[in-house]
Each structure stands twice: as structure tokens, then as C-alpha cells.
Amino acid sequence: MRTYLSCEAGFVEKPQWLPNCWVNVVCPDTDDFRFLTQELNVPESFLTDIADTDERPRTETEGKWLLTILRIPVQNNQNSIPFSTVPIGIITNEEVVVSVCYHQTELIPDFIGYTRRKGLVVRNKLDLIFRIIYSSAVWFLKYLKQINNDVSAAEKELERSIRNEDLLRLMRLQKTLVYFNTSIRGNEIMIGKLTSIFQDTDFLDKDLVEDVITELRQAYNTVNIYSDILTGTMDAFASIISNNVNTIMKRMTSISIILMVPTLIASFYGMNVDVHLETMPHAFALIVVCSIILSSLAFVIFKKIRWF
Predict the structure, then answer these.
(1) 25-26-27 Cα angle (round to 5)
(2) What is the pLDDT of residues 199-229, one digit of tens each?
(3) What's the pTM?
(4) How far out from the chain centre does Cα 294 lie?
(5) Nearest-CA neighbor of 129 among 74, 91, 167, 73?
(6) Which residue, among 219, 221, 232, has the nearest Cα to 143 in the 3D structure?
């Protein structure tokens, strides 16, 4: 699916392509692919690179074309990991600006709506790239707040009962933070590359670049903080689990020792030898009482050393 957007105090959708308008392509089909490669002459290799879900942020040139690949956050509804990142490619030359993403995201529609609400004027292709990076940082922070809420909910569940499902939930969130960390870092490196490419042109807006760097650093620092907190939380619960196992093993060992005392006495008096009590009328009751007394004594000893 593709849309044609022209910047008129915010991006406005047009019925057909016009020079210098922004062509936004989401989940391209055969018709979109034909339009990009045959009518706009976009290099096919660029579209192939963007389709790779593991593609890292980078720039590449081919003739007059410039490919800029960024990583943006997405929410997974079907995958076991709640949040992830996907590549988005921005392909530009002197007259064409094309963004291609092979995944449905909330970022681009929100960005377009934001430009309309604020009446933003995007001066050139570099401004568009930087504003998309800025929007990605905002969405990283938004998803990080959701991750923090999920971590808090998982901690409350673990305080009541430690279950494997809750620990796996924390592990998946930790994996998400790793993805966010590497993607934000890659986007930050891309800013430096784009700045060096366009430093001698009129495209570069230093104030915008500074705002984007500030927002990305905030997202990067937030990811690191949440990652450290989550790592400490998982280590703490791992220690709690280990301590609980030790406590259970101590109790089971104590119960085994207490039950061993009457078993040992019964074994002695169950032998086919002279035990010197066969003539006593209440020998059985005496043996049972002695077993109870010795087991109770063992219980008191274990209670004092806090094995129960």
C-alpha cells in the first residue's frame, strides 16, 4: 500500500504522485514494487535490503540515489516478544523521497498526524529523515513506559507466587530492551553519518539535529536504566528461588531424620534375638512412648536451629 504526501503545513495526502512529494509505502505488494522500480526507477537492490528484518541502520548510495535505513519500534501481537524493532528505508534523490517499510507500524501514521496538528513544514528530504528519527525516539520512550509497567506487574505476580511463566515474561522483556538498545544506538550513529554527508549543504538544520540527538540520548539512557533494573530484579528472584529450594530441602531432611528415629527403634526390636523386654506386659507401649519422646526431642532441636 502506498500513499502520496505533500507538505502543506503538515503532510496532506494526494491522489497521485507529484515531483518532490513523499511516497510512503507500507507492506509493498507487486504493484507497489513495479511502481517504485519502473516508474520512479528506484534501485531494486535497495528494496531487497529493506526487506531484511535484521538489516542494521546504515546509508548506501547508487548513482544519484541515497538509501538510509533506520530501526523503528513496533509492537508484536503474535510473537512471544512483546516489542521489537524493524527496518524502514528512506530512498531519496533530487526529486524523489520514498519511505518503505515491510511491516505495519504506528509510527508513520502518528508522525503524519502530528505534522498536521502542528502545521509543520518539512523543508527537505534531510528534515524528513531527522523528524522520522525523532519520532522513533518518541515511540521508543512510549513503549519503554509500557515495558516498565509490564515489569512492575510481573514483579507483583512473582511476590505472590514464583512461576516459570512470570520469569519467562521478564526474560522476554529483557530481550526487547536489548533490541531497543542496539537500534537506538544504530540510529544515533546514523545521525553522525547524515550530518557529515550534508554538512556543506543548505539541507542541514542544526537545531533539529540537536533536538533529535537529545531525544535519542534520553531514550538510550532510559533503556539502559530499565535494563539494569530488570537484570537486578531477575537476579534477586533467582536468589529467592534458590533460597526457597534450600529451605524446602532443610525441612525435608529434618522430617526424614525425625521419622528415622522410631524407624530405627522399631528395626532394633523387630530382630529375632533376645531384647530383654519380651517378659514385660507393656513393652510395646513403652517402646512407642520412647520413640515419640526421641522424635519430639529431635523436633525441638531442629526448631531451635530454625530448620522448621
Answers:
(1) 120
(2) 777 777 888 889 899 999 999 999 999 988 8
(3) 0.79
(4) 57
(5) 91
(6) 219
